[in-house]
Design a protein that fits this description.
The complex is a heterodimer of chains A (167) and B (464). Chain A contains five helices and two strands; from the N terminus they run ααββααα. By secondary structure, chain A is mainly alpha-helical. Chain A has one domain: Nucleotidyltransferases  domain 2 (Four Helix Bundle (Hemerythrin (Met), subunit A), Up-down Bundle), CATH 1.20.120. The longest helix of chain A is centred in the last third of the chain and has 24 residues, at 140-163. Chain B has 464 residues and is of the alpha/beta class. Classes of the chains: A mainly alpha (167), B alpha/beta (464).
Chain lengths: 167, 464
């Protein structure tokens, strides 16, 4: 059911995503406060990505199950077409498009999350490949904006884990 | 022999979690006990100004896991200093102190934050404010825990009676899953193009301006000053455009940014009241609004009784289903600290009261009153004197069984077989028949007094 979370074990993918999100965010803050912007920016992106994947696995039909019988578990959350059994969507790195977000905002609740996800545009120019670049294109104003959005999503993620529902 | 521990079930988890919470609070720490939608508990300790020793935190964490078993959250103990959303959760308006426990000297405060999938409005009791111009709109909910108790028929009879007294009456059909008040009231008149469901659906996309939501019922009140309007749940069918009622009802419970369902329902009722002022020749707003609520433990009933009305008439018959159902609701109100606020709004109606030589009305009502009093006692104050003073708690409300102004004292409506399965379209003038008037006489007199009383100046001598 959308909007409420089920149980999750300590070894589950959603557990790892949740803890990884917090770790990336705290490390990003540490780096930004020390003036190391490119890597701070990189970690803010991962913090948001992990938090959203944690929410997807807890509150939606997205799964880490093998995409084919007998294969290894998926490395990213994905959604199956109930009619054909095929992969209709797989969640990768940021930036996400509207279709990526739609599954999380489906249903009766999650008004705050819906509003927060509207601010994900702050990550439109974020690229996972920036870790291989010299970092000169990273602007302080962008990192500050991404820090704000990351904190907002991490706070909603934390509340969702404590209350068991999307706010 | 290794015995498995007895599993902790839902009902015993709360007192166990509270025990640990009070143990932590005894150290002078404020705590917030959060129950998630599955019933699992997490204890948040506000350590932002008070350090918590690691060994204490470790011990409490272990206690919660041991005592609560499956009802311990993934993180059963959380220190606010390490949270991203400490301000949001610890500052939540929904967090309530435990109503059954008084804070002890030197101890921290224990508050609870409950999260459910539906129905949170049961525990948020408030009374509508006066209008901007200082006038008061009397809003009354008519509710039955079980359906089929004649609630909607009574609403229709009461609405006409109030209009006869010169009031401008609006009946709002909030029984969205089973609408009925609209067609029953507007016999022979044209229903409006749109209903409450349309208001809820259109307002969610900012498209509700100008909706035709109310109709005069065609009834001519006896005094000539009164008016009777209806806001149906479902609008009128129109040629060429299918009226997709089910598709709309399935969307009305959506929260939208900045407004939850309770806000949206309140705004929808208000839109209907404004529509009366707009469309009425007198240009006046309704001064009496009757809200025909959905039955059962449902979000609409929760919002209607807890928030939208200043009086709720609770319909019931003298049977186990009635008392069991209301008993569950009353316990929930008490445990959420709402007993005092909600009891001021409530009054029981004994609907479909038998009166025959084999089953006289008085005998039936005696039994009804006793069961009602037992049920309502959950919401009343203790009538045992305080041990220190030998006096009752100042302001304690513990009415006797015979107190005819108390919420438990039934207002009777006689059972009338002629009204069962009534087809209003084929029974013009049914409300004026002598047997109908006789069946509703006591109800109309008492309900009118209750509805038109001013809750702001309510005093002990009032009829409520």
């Amino acid at each position: 059911m959308s909007g409420t979370s089920g149980t999750s074990s300590a070894a589950s993918a959603e557990h790892h995503y949740a803890r990884a999100a917090e770790r990336h965010h705290r490390d990003a803050i540490y780096l930004q406060d020390d003036g190391r912007l490119p890597n701070a920016d990189y970690h803010f992106g991962f913090a948001v990505e992990c938090a959203l994947k944690s929410l997807l696995l807890r509150f939606t039909v997205a799964t880490m199950a093998p995409k084919r019988p007998g294969k290894r578990p998926s490395t990213a959350p994905w959604v199956q077409d109930p009619a054909t059994g095929r992969v209709i969507h797989e969640y990768g790195h940021l930036p996400w498009v509207a279709a990526d977000i739609a599954l999380l905002t489906h249903g009766r609740s999650a008004a705050k999350l819906t509003a927060a996800l509207g601010n994900l545009t702050a990550f439109d120019s974020w690229q996972v490949g920036q870790r291989y670049l010299d970092g000169s294109s990273v602007a302080e104003v962008d990192v500050s904006q991404r820090r704000t959005v990351s904190h907002e999503i991490l706070a909603l993620h934390e509340q969702a884990l404590i209350t068991g529902r999307l706010q | 022999m290794n015995l498995s521990p007895v599993p902790v079930r839902f009902d015993s988890a709360r007192p166990r979690a509270l025990r640990v919470a009070y143990e932590v609070a005894a150290q002078g720490l404020d705590v917030l006990l959060v129950r998630d939608v599955l019933g699992r508990f997490a204890l948040i300790i506000d350590d932002r100004d008070n350090d918590v020793q690691t060994e204490h935190a470790t011990a409490w964490h272990a206690r919660l896991n041991t005592d609560l078993q499956q009802y311990a959250a993934d993180r059963p103990l959380i220190l606010a200093s390490g949270m991203f959303s400490a301000d949001d959760l610890l500052g939540s308006e929904r967090a309530r102190p435990d109503p059954l426990h008084l804070p002890a000297q030197g101890h921290g405060v224990v508050r609870l934050l409950d999260n459910t999938v539906v129905g949170e409005d049961w525990s948020r009791v408030s009374t509508p404010a006066v209008e901007i111009d200082g006038s008061r709109t009397h809003r009354t909910a008519l509710y039955g825990f079980k359906g089929g108790v004649g609630r909607t028929t009574a609403t229709a009879v009461l609405a006409r009676h109030l209009a006869d007294q010169g009031h401008i009456v609006l009946v709002v059909d909030l029984d969205l899953e089973s609408p009925g008040a609209g067609p029953l009231l507007a016999v022979g008149a044209r229903l409006p193009r749109y209903g409450i469901v349309d208001q809820l659906v259109e307002s969610a996309v900012g498209n509700a301006d100008g909706l035709d939501l109310v109709s005069p019922t065609g009834y001519s009140p006896r005094t000539g000053r009164g008016e009777l309007w209806v806001a149906p749940a479902r609008g009128r069918d129109c040629e060429g455009v299918a009226y997709s009622y089910v598709d709309k009802v399935n969307r009305v419970y959506a929260d939208i940014p900045g407004m939850d369902f309770a806000d949206r329902l309140a705004a929808a009722v208000r839109a209907c009241e404004c529509a009366v002022a707009r469309e009425s020749e007198s240009g006046r707003r309704p001064d009496v609004v009757l809200l025909d609520s959905r039955a059962g433990i449902h979000d609409i009933a929760a919002v209607t009784i807890s928030r939208l009305c200043d009086l709720a008439l609770l319909f019931g018959a003298d049977n186990k289903q009635t008392w069991g159902g209301y008993g569950d609701l009353f316990v929930a109100w008490r445990s959420s600290g709402q007993a005092r606020a909600i009891r001021d709004k409530l009054r029981i109606v004994a609907s479909m009261v038998p009166d025959s030589p084999q089953r006289p009305m008085d005998t039936y009502l005696d039994s009804f009153r006793e069961h009602s009093w037992e049920c309502f006692s959950v919401l009343y104050d203790d009538d045992v004197p305080e041990p220190d003073t030998g006096q009752l708690i100042p302001g304690a409300f513990s009415p006797s069984l015979e107190d005819d102004s108390a919420p438990h004292y039934p207002i009777p409506i006689l059972f009338e077989p002629g009204l069962v399965g009534l087809d209003a379209d084929k029974a013009a003038g049914w409300q004026d028949r002598a047997f109908v008037q006789a069946a509703y006489r006591d109800f109309l007199t008492t309900a009118t007094l209750l509805i038109t009383a001013n809750p702001q100046s309510e005093s002990d001598e009032g009829p409520r």
